[in-house]
Amino acid sequence: MAAVAPTLARRIARPGMLPLCSRPQAWGRAARQSPGLPRAPSLLLTQRRAFSNNKILVELDEGSGIATMKLKSPPVNSLSLDFLTEFCISLEKLENNRGCRGVIFTSAIPKIFSSGLDITEMCRKSTEHYAEFWRAVQEMWLRVYGSNMVTVAAINGSSPAGGCLLALSCDYRIMAENPKFSIGLNEAQLGIVAPFWFKDTFVNVVGHRVAERSLQLGCLHSAPEALRIGLVDELVPEEKLQDKAAAVIAQWLALPDHARQLTKSMMRKLVLDRLVAHREEDIQNFISFITKESIQKSLHMYMEMLKKKKG
Ligand SMILES: CCCCC/C=C\C/C=C\C=C\CC(=O)SCCNC(=O)CCNC(=O)[C@H](O)C(C)(C)COP(=O)(O)OP(=O)(O)OC[C@H]1O[C@@H](n2cnc3c(N)ncnc32)[C@H](O)[C@@H]1OP(=O)(O)O
């Protein structure tokens, strides 16, 4: 996979080529196989297929049609260009498999779901690098938010900024009920601004007032607070998280696919279309923003603060 990743990264990045997400997704794609009766995945005698790359483990239960994508990029599952590329390859494989109807995103790293965008990718790099990186961030969001599959985030650790965006892009969020785990779009704390599509996704989950306050203050919400403001849908003990996520997906999959998919598309289309229509402009905005000396200084200070906290 290591050899494949840079090739795909270039494919995502090259403006002349069709981006991966130009394939129709939740809007205008044929329904997946008919749902049949709701079935508890754990009761099925089924075959499990697994594949993995360097940073993501994927397991597909062919009986239930539910896959688990486990993020495994130590130390903190930061969303680097390589990670995002491998993530999109894995998700595309599942999208193309008509037997797969639902995905659980979770982490293989104890206490961390994802630490968000890899800050080192945004520090002192070339314009070309920033363009490639930001296109990959967009691609991840377009794929998850626009997925035809039922998507559930099983949040088994802290999940700031880009990690929170991944969870927000799913259909349902279940978090481990550990008050030490936090989640939120904390960009303001780093001296940066959440882009409009992060904000739109957040508003669609928690509503305008809660989103505005949380974004302006760069809040990281503890798990109980995240439940209270509707940022996550439920809390469960950590050991029950994966079973609960599978049970929720089975429940959603009990409905006819076409009705659920068209409804999802209707709810999300405006927000998705907005980025699709302004993708290049959004990349240019990111580059102008991130190359400002004041922003580079803020990011540098934030990284120093992380290191000091450790030592
Ligand atoms: C008006 C126009 C606007 C246009 C704007 C366009 C774009 C805006 C731009 C960007 C948007 C960005 C969104 C983001 O996602 S930014 C990333 C935000 N992430 C964070 O704030 C998380 C920071 N990390 C933490 O809080 C902790 O690390 C964490 C709670 C995740 C884990 O704590 P723990 O104590 O277990 O581990 P640490 O010792 O802190 O970390 C280990 C190791 O990992 C490094 N690291 C942590 N997070 C990141 C990261 N996100 N990227 C890169 N590296 C990270 C950390 O520095 C340690 O490294 P080392 O010291 O071991 O070398």
Automatic annotation (TrEMBL):
Keywords: Isomerase. Pfam families: ECH_1. The keyword Protein biosynthesis does not apply. InterPro entries: ClpP/crotonase-like_dom_sf, Enoyl-CoA_hyd/isom_CS, Enoyl-CoA_hydra/iso. One of its GO terms (molecular function) is isomerase activity. Belongs to the enoyl-CoA hydratase/isomerase family. This is Enoyl-CoA delta isomerase 1, mitochondrial. It comes from Apteryx mantelli (North Island brown kiwi).
